[in-house]
Design a protein that fits this description.
Distance between the termini: 43 Å
Catalytic activity: prephenate + NAD(+) = 3-(4-hydroxyphenyl)pyruvate + CO2 + NADH
Order of helices and strands: EHEHEHEHEHEEHEHHHHHHEHEEHE
Organism: Salinibacillus xinjiangensis
Oligomer: single chain
CATH class of the largest domain: Alpha Beta
Number of strands: 12
Pfam families: PDH_C, PDH_N
EC number: 1.3.1.12
Shape: globular
Strand content: 15-25%
Protein name: Prephenate dehydrogenase
Number of helices: 14
CATH architecture of the largest domain: 3-Layer(aba) Sandwich
Helix content: 40-55%
Length: 366
Amino acid sequence: MSRVFIVGLGLIGASLVKNIKFNQPNSYIYGLDLNAETIERALKYNIIDESVDSFEEGVQKADVVILGTPIHITIDYINQLQTIPVTTEKIVTDVSSVKGSIMKVAKQIENPNIKFIGGHPMAGSHKQGIEAAKSHLFENAYYILIPARDGFESQIAILKELLKNTKSYFVELTEKEHDKMTGIVSHFPHLIASSLVHQARNWQDEYPFLPQLAAGGFRDITRIASSNPDLWQDILFQNKTEMVQFLDEWIEEMDKVKGLLETDQRGDVREYLDRAKIYRDGLPKKKKGALPNFYDIYVDIFDQPGELYKVIKRLAEYELNITNIQILEIRENMTGVLRLTMQTEEEQLAAMKVLESHQYEVSLEE
């Protein structure tokens, strides 16, 4: 029987143990969260079997410890491991989005019974908290593993076996490789998205109609700016060195683009845009990456009473769950007045098939 201790029952932590509990009935899950209401819900929803009163109690009772807390709190818990008299082997892992600071502390653990393996399941959602937890959240997502020391092969195998039903793709990296790559494709884009939103906000006083025009593509490309500010403040400062480097590179590149525009270098600007298009079009479309996926479909419908109801009714007949509905007033470069967001890629494709069978014109955003 697998005895698992989860610390922090937010979206990621709760989804992980929900998957373990659903697929491994013989497992026993201990839980700890600073929010008493969250613990109550975890017990009520059968996500955990038992709550514990302290971190040490959970560590002593479990074989595997999963730290699902914000990065700075995770570091505190790793430091606490140094003071707990652990006499049997414990596999300890985390789910943090930045690994450098985590692994620096983990490598200082002296107790040979504590085997720390850094973890980062690269999946998420625009919804947060235990209520949004899904056992299938990590399907087709990359799951990064970083052992604190060499010689942890058997412990990595045990952890993979415990998490195999997440249907993730396990990849072993160093903390430096992880932080550089996730910084480029996840952390830095959050800064850029936020800066674009600030720029729009700064021009709003002069052009009051601007928010209405921003309701289309602009809102889409800045979706990630709506993420939890406390979470992302933590991530950005934990990966500060990489962020400063990327900002320097970004500013230098934008200065070059500015120069091309000021000197009317049309050919160079087109080449700049073309290179970006070619690289972007070649990126994988199926697997989940560092940013949360949005499974949208666009439906071309007439603006008349009952049309929206018909679409929803068709999908409900096939038990397809819609997580968000938006009527698009600004829809440059896309067909369809209605945007539906589904929970998974499978539901997205199924919804597209259902609606096309009823003669709706449907498209996906690539």
